[in-house]
């Protein structure tokens, strides 16, 4: 990775005059976890038995998990800030293949979570554009992500050029069987 791209990934990215992405560090890690948990719970409690998302939270949104991610050069975590307010989180996995697509050719958008009050305002579209620009800067050929089969996100991704590659499912315990089906979506760059 060239130095310019490394700086782009590790420095705040200004998406427009009010929207910025701030890299997560030990100093702002708690904010990332808090906003991640809140935004996840606002959108996805219905997936879990007794509306208890503990299996997901303990797997991907604890201080300990994010501290490990910060030490992993393959993971990049951001706070999504609107003006000075954190309104969401973003996690990318820089070298993450899927099926026949190699790690070298694919970037995964692993977490794109926005607080409910900030959904539907065009922030997600700007985040996708940033993700795709980052992937191009890393010479990736594909961006991919998982989305629940039910609900609006899959339509949002399709509207933005992502196509369904294949089925997947939530594999964590206590997900409602009817809510487990997911799609893996890809976008060729």
Topology overview:
Blueprint (H helix, E strand, L loop, with lengths): L2 H8 L2 E2 L4 E5 L5 H16 L9 H7 L2 H9 L3 E8 L2 E9 L12 E9 L8 H15 L4 E7 L4 H7 L3 E7 L11 E8 L1
Parallel strand pairs: 5-6
Antiparallel strand pairs: 1-2, 2-3, 3-4, 4-5, 6-8, 7-8
In short:
The chain is an alpha+beta fold and 189 residues long. 33% of the residues lie in helices and 29% in strands. The longest helix is centred in the N-terminal third of the chain and has 16 residues, at 29-44.
Structural Rg: 16 Å
Largest sheet at a glance?
8 strands, mixed
Helicity, in percent?
Answer: 25-40%
Would you count the extended β strands for me? 8
Instruction: Compute the separation of the termini in Å.
Output: 18 Å
Mean residue pLDDT:
93
**Strands of the biggest beta sheet: in what spatial order?**
1-2-3-4-5-6-8-7
Show unreliable segments: none
Oligomer: single chain
Range of strand content: 25-35%
The DSSP helix count reads 6
Bulk shape: globular
Tell me the series of helices and strands, N- to C-terminal: HEEHHHEEEHEHEE
Helix/sheet category: alpha+beta
């Amino acid at each position: 990775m060239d130095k310019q791209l490394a700086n782009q990934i590790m420095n705040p990215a200004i998406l427009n005059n009010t929207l910025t992405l701030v890299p997560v560090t030990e100093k702002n890690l708690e904010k990332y976890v808090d906003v991640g948990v809140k935004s996840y719970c606002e959108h996805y409690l219905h997936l879990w038995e007794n509306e208890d998302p503990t299996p997901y939270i303990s797997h991907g949104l604890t201080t300990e998990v994010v501290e490990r991610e910060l030490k992993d050069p393959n993971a990049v975590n951001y706070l999504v800030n609107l003006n000075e307010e954190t309104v969401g989180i973003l996690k990318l996995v820089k070298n993450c293949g899927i099926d026949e697509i190699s790690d070298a050719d694919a970037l995964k958008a692993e977490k794109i979570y926005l607080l409910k009050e900030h959904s539907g305002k065009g922030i997600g579209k700007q985040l996708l554009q940033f993700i795709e620009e980052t992937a191009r800067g890393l010479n990736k050929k594909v961006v991919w992500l998982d989305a629940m089969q039910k609900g609006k996100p899959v339509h949002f991704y399709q509207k933005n050029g992502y196509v369904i590659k294949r089925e997947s499912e939530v594999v964590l315990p206590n997900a409602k069987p009817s809510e487990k089906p997911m799609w893996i979506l890809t976008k060729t760059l």
